[in-house]
Amino acid sequence: MPENLKDISGEITVWAWALEADFLQSIVPEFEKEYPNIQVNIHKQGPDQVYQRLITGLAANQGDQLPDLVQIEETRLPSYQEHFPNHFTNLSDLGYDRYDGHFAPAKEAAVKDENGNFFAMPRDLGPVGVFYRKDLFAKAGVEPSSIQTWEDYMEAGKQVLEKTDVKMLGLTLNEVVPLYKYMLQQQGAFYFDQEGNIDVRSEESVRAILTINQMNEEGIISNVTNWDGRVAALKNGQVATLPGAIWWTGTMKDQMPELSGKWGAMPLPQFKDQQGIGANGGGSNLVIPKASENKAAAYAFGEFATTRVDLLIDGLKNQGLFPSLLAAYEEPEFQDKQEYFDHQPVYKEFAAIAKETPSVHYTSDYARANDIVNDEIISMLLNRKPLSQVLKDITQTLGPSTGREVNES
Amino acid sequence: MNTPSPVPHPENPATQGKTKKRNNFVSIQRAPYFFLFPAAVLFLLFTAYPIVHSFILSFQTTTEEGRVFVGLDNYIRLFQDRLFYESLGNTLIILVFQVPIMLFLALILANILNSGFIRFKGFFRVSFFAPAVTSLVAASIIFLLLLHQDYGLVNYLLSIAGLNSVGWLNDPLGAKISLILVTTWRWTGYNMVILLAGLQNIPKHLYEAASIDGASKVRQFFSITIPQLKPVILFAAVISTIGTLQLFDEPYTLTNGGPIHATTTITMYLYRNGFEYFDFGYGSAIAYVVVLIIAVLSLIQFKWAGVER
Amino acid sequence: MRNSVIQKTILYIILAMGVILTVGPFYWMIVGATNPSGETLRIPPRLIPGSYLMENLNHLFASVDIWRSFLNSAFITITYTFLAVLISAAAGYAFAKYQFRGKEILFSAFLISMMIPYQALVIPQFELFSTLGLLDSYSAIILPQLAYPFAIFLMRQNMQSIPDSLIEAARVDGAGEFFIFFRIGIPTMLPAITAVSIFLFTHQWNNFLWPLVALISEEQYTLPVALATLAGQRSIDYGQLMLGASISILPIFILFLFLQRYFIAGIISGAVKE
């Protein structure tokens, strides 16, 4: 890296979507002040567009069609890294290793390769907790602090249903059940173990599946179709809780301002006799394709966007993007008592969750595993497919298609 | 209606031989090549080349060293892939229900619009055809909202009628039915227009003779309309079969293949393998199995209709 | 007599139901375009247009350059349709009216290519256009399907009905082959050409997957690509999207209203001549 910032020059193109694109756009003026000879073009697109172009450009081996910097979620990072190993810039070589240990541990693990080199610069995170309707809980006589385990949660759910005729939670049974993933992660487990073997038969996994299934049998789950169904169910008071990531707070404030003060938040309940509350849902990162002709400028902008505390705080305030840089959690804005959550310091509490979240090995087969696992779990919930059959079908489909070993229970 | 009448065999070399010799650079022998030149060049470059390329891809897999040949591995793997069979099954189920239902509806509408006394034919034609010229991005949003289990108009109307709400997109069977309905909505008018055209070509005197013999309208329909319309029905059936076997946009935008891959069609599975699982070789192999199936089904349809080619 | 009145009534009821089913969703789209986003998810559903059109329009303008995309779509689609019709008419004419070597093979190749799922061709096509340096341009969208097999097929079917005697007579008069094509082939085939034009126009206007990948700059976006950027990951503004969708459908509707007569006539001759 050149010593003098003015020495880095050039024009860079950045692909990003939605709020992340807005955030990156918002920091451009400041960036160009510090790096007067770099011109940044933010190209805001739909998420499908970003991924489809990226994969097409890589698969067709047309590196020059790629941008200098691009947004990728951590769930997809290993797929890109392993399928196209020589197509992304090793950022540690460019000096990013100086930020070793600066980010939430699970995030940092997700953006490094097996040799510990940074391949992506970490942006936002989605620490998961349970949002709940204080008024409905009060009406049902449920004391939030009494919910420590998933068993407590289920009991509370039954009570809420009985007293208020409201279901405890909404799941999108025609799409995905992220709750299973959260339950795995909080126990330090995942679809795959650290060696990349298929691990859905683990004790943790079975525990999680059975818990969700039991909730379904108790009738406390509402099937809410899709994204809009989830939002509408929250807005219309059809569900009492939402196990979800921090970015839901943005949607809640935007779409249902009338519910201000009625919401509370708590960490995920634990499993009985088990530790662990940390899980993550969503979050993205910035990578530099190797074909970029302006790596120095792209690096400078990526570093600027991921490590400047003041800008990250702005991003949290304006776009609701929860940073992964630990230093940001010490800022006063994180201690704010939020009116919408009845003066609860939600950011601070979720920052604590972010720090505790165990890392998971997504692997290059995450997308395939996610599709298959969700389909099977939904089969169980909708069609009462027995657990043994569910596990058998997952492993027998996933094993051959990924060529991965299957761990026996 | 400006409908050309049938002509004698159009490709008779004998008639071409009679032509006077001319000194034109573009002779009769050369002319077809000139006429075909643009289409052939564009086709070779932009269609044939990618096809050959993707066919080669179907024998390859991507490794850390780039693409390597793996022989028939992708095809062999395909035959052991449960999800492949399921998506093939979904596609065939949709085909078996959707194409006949659609052609049946199209035939009814075409017959009604072919009756002499119906007025406002132009209006009805445009209305029925409209869905076919609608961008699916738009149509799918409408149907997502119409069929929403909790907020959709369809379930609201059912509830007014005192019926239970249906999981149009939430339930595996419901989603399949929805997909069949939406595809039918989109393409019935298109097929109706094709069939209507065929109906108008049936000589009127056949019906007049039948009426004199005292044949009922229903009898006339089965003894005159259907046999006369056979080639047109075949044309519509082949086009619809190709369309349904390649069904992608509707499930992609409406149900995303779910729930429990109940609406994952074969082309959707192809797309997933390529663009989501980065397994382009495998995706290409699926594509060529689709080609094989379409070719076989088209042949069967031609055989069934007894058309010689 | 009574019987036929009842019969007519039943037929009209069937037609009316058909119209409600096919056109109803469009009406609802317009209702959605004139109401605030949240209203769309209300129970009971709103069935009358609201007064939120201008707000939705402003939101739409703030998110995408819809007019620019409209112009892009219009330019691409019109250029494409004009060229593709000409190319497929010429090819169809050759297949219908000449004997030449390689005819069967070429025609079969065209037909078989119709059976290949397009999704499998995106990657090789991208590679090709990248090598040609044509990505992110109008040509990237216009070129790939200029030789559209289905259009060539329809044209061939139609061209077969041009009386050979007409062509022969022209040849006897000393007319060249091109002259005959342009003066006899094309004019007698106007209904078919209109039909194929509408077919190609619709096809290109709705073209989605390839432009999504091939067009990179916002200034080049076609309408379907621009609409796709409206749908974010974690929320959809329905009012805005419905309005954008209405705008993208309108030209197709108008075109079809004007040209539907020819369209149907053209399909007739194409379909019947198997």
UniProtKB/TrEMBL annotation, chain B:
<comment type="similarity">
    <text>Belongs to the binding-protein-dependent transport system permease family.</text>
</comment>
<keyword id="KW-0813">Transport</keyword>
<keyword id="KW-1133">Transmembrane helix</keyword>
<feature type="transmembrane region" description="Helical">
    <location>
        <begin position="280"/>
        <end position="300"/>
    </location>
</feature>
<dbReference type="Pfam" id="PF00528">
    <property type="entry name" value="BPD_transp_1"/>
</dbReference>
<keyword id="KW-0472">Membrane</keyword>
<dbReference type="GO" id="GO:0005886">
    <property type="term" value="C:plasma membrane"/>
</dbReference>
<keyword id="KW-1003">Cell membrane</keyword>
<feature type="transmembrane region" description="Helical">
    <location>
        <begin position="126"/>
        <end position="147"/>
    </location>
</feature>
<dbReference type="InterPro" id="IPR000515">
    <property type="entry name" value="MetI-like"/>
</dbReference>
<dbReference type="InterPro" id="IPR035906">
    <property type="entry name" value="MetI-like_sf"/>
</dbReference>
<feature type="transmembrane region" description="Helical">
    <location>
        <begin position="229"/>
        <end position="248"/>
    </location>
</feature>
<feature type="transmembrane region" description="Helical">
    <location>
        <begin position="92"/>
        <end position="114"/>
    </location>
</feature>
<dbReference type="GO" id="GO:0055085">
    <property type="term" value="P:transmembrane transport"/>
</dbReference>
<dbReference type="InterPro" id="IPR051393">
    <property type="entry name" value="ABC_transporter_permease"/>
</dbReference>
<feature type="transmembrane region" description="Helical">
    <location>
        <begin position="31"/>
        <end position="52"/>
    </location>
</feature>
<protein>
    <submittedName>
        <fullName>Lactose ABC transporter permease</fullName>
    </submittedName>
</protein>
<feature type="domain" description="ABC transmembrane type-1">
    <location>
        <begin position="88"/>
        <end position="301"/>
    </location>
</feature>
<keyword id="KW-0812">Transmembrane</keyword>
